[in-house]
Structure formats: structure tokens, C-alpha cells
Amino acid sequence: MEKPGKIALPKGKLGVLLPGMGAVSTTFMAGVELVRKGKAQPVGSLTQLSTIRLGKRTDARSPLIKKFVPLSDLKDLVFGGWDIFKDNAYQAASKAGVLSEKDLEKVKPFLSGISPMRAAFDREYVKRLDSTHVKKGKNKYDLATQIKDDIENFRKTKRVSRLVTCWCGSTEVFIKPEEVHSTPEKFVEAMKANHPAIAPSMLYAWASVTSGVPFANGAPNLTVDIPAIQQLALEHNVAICGKDFKTGQTMMKTVLAPAFKARMLGLDGWYSTNILGNRDGEVLDDPGSFKTKEESKLGALEYILQPQLYPMLYGKVFHKVRINYYPPRGDNKEGWDNIDIFGWLGYPMQIKVDFLCRDSILAAPIVLDLVLFLDLAQRAGMRGIQEWLSFYFKSPMTAPDLYPEHDLFIQLMKLKNTLRWMMGEDLITHLGQEYYD
Ligand SMILES: NC(=O)c1ccc[n+]([C@@H]2O[C@H](COP(=O)([O-])OP(=O)(O)OC[C@H]3O[C@@H](n4cnc5c(N)ncnc54)[C@H](O)[C@@H]3O)[C@@H](O)[C@H]2O)c1
């Protein structure tokens, strides 16, 4: 791929469109506003806190990423979204119960001013939710066209110069790629025919991409992971990425598994279980939505361990993932892992990981980084799948014949090297021979 030419500067306001204004979205928006007011720190966000090394280790050049690449400033972000419930962002955040009342009070007027647009929704795809704030239309194509109108209205009334969409809606039932997803034409026909393989999230993706708006997919839904939308992204010069934010348990998995493989330690089994009590947990209690999440969570180990290359070490791994809805915990998930490994001469050992995490606290900075990086990619003329953003996803999207890279630190290297490449700096290979010449 050709190196991007001059990257357009982030002039004017950047609109952030969020289908799904639940726990993650509201924690993200409230957090950005708290940071803008100087009342909190953007912990967990690379775009705000991380530096990037340039040149040799002896050069002492490590600017902040946000000083190195032309990112939009937080003050220029303007928010909007859709939800199947009418609650404004303050009410939704209060119900989600992630942030304290004290923190929410500080941003109450700001959050109260963000009300969701009516959603495109169908209970067939998220069985545990009963909607009260949805669009009516004669078919799915009609609904998708209404979303396009929403996007244009938002663009005009908020006077934004650019937009990014990040799906923060619920996990839908498991859908496999089908013929109707294969081309943009078949996709439109299928929307008009109300084909069951066209899920609501795909309507938002189609509307965004055909409106020239980049799209990130935070859920494990198929959404933009289909040829029709990918082709449209190329035709409309739009950047897309997905899928499923990599936050708690899978983040730990993609740190630990590469360590075992790096040291050629074997693995017999990995049992992962989760308890969580938020709306996401309730949705995932439905077997159809769980299946979508399960597929996403199971993939990482297989790709990292490469059992086909190391059958003796990884040929018989028993990998199980469970998610249990447990209301008392709310958004404070507990992800518990039992890992059975073996070492020298096959002697067994065990590792236990108990991650008492806060789901949306981990996800919010990911939404911020994805929004800012997708906008950057868009201004740099990078279109289609943005594999360099794999760092943020449980099931990274790739070109059809490529396997995804799951190792968190390879993903980080890929991300930082892409930024260096975009800005015409040398890539860092970690060879290091030059220091000994
Ligand atoms: N928090 C994390 O750590 C994490 C990690 C990976 C993925 N995710 C995914 O991110 C998504 C959001 O998570 P959350 O905790 O905010 O869930 P949530 O249930 O609090 O919010 C999702 C919102 O989406 C709305 N919604 C559902 N279908 C919709 C539609 N068709 N159009 C518009 N709105 C719709 C729901 O009403 C709800 O308010 C989920 O799919 C979740 O699986 C979250």
C-alpha cells in the first residue's frame, strides 16, 4: 500500500455517533467531558497518554502520540447516538451504575443534553430486550435510509466537519456470512426483502459507510465483517475496523498465551468463566447472543498457539468459556481463569487468574482511541479494514486470506509502526545491531 501523502489536519468538529447508548457509551461520553473539564484523567487511552519512540534508542525522541500524529482534540468531539430506550445519556448512565453519582453530577447538564435517536431494532436479534423507542419502516432498507437521514441531520445541525460511528449496541444473535452478504447489490436486495441474515447493526454499518463515515464495531456481531460492507468501504473511501472490544479476560489471555508459547511451555486446558450483572450480561444470557460472544472469545488461543506447528505442546488444548448473568455484580465483572500448563519433561503446573474488573471502565478509553484513530486514518486516505487497530479487538478483522494477529504486544508494535509509517518515520524492527558497530 502506498504511504499516505499529507494528512489533512483535523479542522472543525468531529461528530461521534454511537448506536447503543448504554454502559460503555455513557461511560465514554461522561469520561471525555470530565477530562475536558480537568476533573479526571484519561487513564487507559493511548491517544491521550502514550508516547511513541522515534529513531534510535540513543536519540531520546519519545513524543506523546497526540503530539506526533494530528489527532482531533477532545474539545472538538460532539456526541450523538441511537437507542431502543428513550433515556438521555444522564439517565442511561445512572441506570448503568458504572460511574458514581458524584461524578455524574459534575457532567449532568452535558449528559442530559444527549438524547438518543430512535433505533432500528428487531427483537429477533437481541431476545432479552423489549424496545420502546424504535423506527418504523416498510422494510430494512427503509430503516437504513432513515439512519442515513439521521446522520445527515446530525452533520448539519451540529455543524461537524467529520464523523465517526462506533457500534456500542448489544450483542446480537449469531449470524454466519451468507450469499446476501457477498456484494453491495445483493445486500441492498436482501434489506428490501427483509432477509433474516441482515441484522440491525448491519443497517447502521451500511448507512455509515455509504455516507462516507468510518465505522468501528465494538460488539462481536458480524456487522462490517462481510464482503458487501467491505467493498462499499473501498468504494466510498471509508475506514472500518472490528470486532468486539478487547477489555478484560481476553486481554489477559492475549498477554499470557504468547508468554507460554514464547517459552515453549505446553497447555492442557484453559477454563474461563465470567460473572456479570449489567444489561450486557443479561443480553448474553440468551444462548443466541452468547454464541456470538463465545466464538469471538474462543478464537484468540488457537491463533496465538498455532497447534498445527506445535502439536505436542498445543494439539490437545481443552478451551472453555462461560459467561453467567449475576445481577448483584452490576458492571463489575469477575473473570476467572484456570490454566493448566506443563513444563520440562511434561510436569504439570497451574495458573489462576481472578480479574475483578470494571467492564465499561476498560472499554471507554478503547472507544475514544478508536474514534480518534479512525478519524486520523480517514484523513490520511486509508480505506477499508484497518488491521493496525487489531490491538483493540477480540476478533480482529483482516483481509480474507490472512489469519488475525492476537498477541497484544505484536498488535501494539503494529499500531505504533503504522503511526511511524504514516508520518514518514523509520519503522522500529528491534534488531539493534547498530548500537554495537
Ligand atoms: N464493556 C466491555 O468490556 C465490552 C467488551 C467487549 C464488547 N462489549 C460490547 O459492547 C456492547 C455495549 O456494551 P454495554 O456494556 O454498553 O451494553 P449495554 O447493554 O449497557 O448497552 C447496549 C445498548 O445498546 C442498545 N441497543 C441494542 N440494540 C440496539 C439497536 N439495534 N440500535 C440502537 N441501540 C441498541 C441497548 O438498548 C443498550 O442500551 C455490547 O455488545 C458488548 O458485548 C463490551
Report on the architecture of this protein.
Helix 7 (140-157) crosses helix 9. The longest helix has 21 residues, at 359-379. Helices cover 38% and strands 15% of the residues. The chain has 437 residues and is of the alpha/beta class. The chain has helices at residues 23-36, 46-49, 65-68, 89-96, 101-106, 108-112, 140-157, 184-192, 200-210, 227-235, 249-262, 279-284, 287-305, 311-314, 359-379, 408-422; strands at residues 14-19, 77-83, 117-118, 162-167, 215-217, 239-242, 266-276, 318-325, 334-342, 348-356, 384-385. The protein contains 16 helices and eleven strands. The protein starts with 13 loop residues before the first strand and ends in a 15-residue tail after the last helix. The radius of gyration is 22 Å and the shape is globular. Nicotinamide-adenine-dinucleotide (NAD) binds next to helix 1, strand 2, helix 12 and helix 15. Nicotinamide-adenine-dinucleotide binds at residues 19-24, 82-85, 96, 119-121, 126, 129, 168-171, 200, 218-219, 244-245, 247, 278-280, 283, 359-360, 362-363.
Topology:
Layout: E1 14-19, H1 23-36, H2 46-49, H3 65-68, E2 77-83, H4 89-96, H5 101-106, H6 108-112, E3 117-118, H7 140-157, E4 162-167, H8 184-192, H9 200-210, E5 215-217, H10 227-235, E6 239-242, H11 249-262, E7 266-276, H12 279-284, H13 287-305, H14 311-314, E8 318-325, E9 334-342, E10 348-356, H15 359-379, E11 384-385, H16 408-422
Parallel strand pairs: 1-2, 1-4, 2-3, 4-5, 5-6, 6-11, 7-8
Antiparallel strand pairs: 7-9, 9-10
Helix pairs in contact: 1-4, 1-15, 7-8, 7-9, 8-10, 11-13
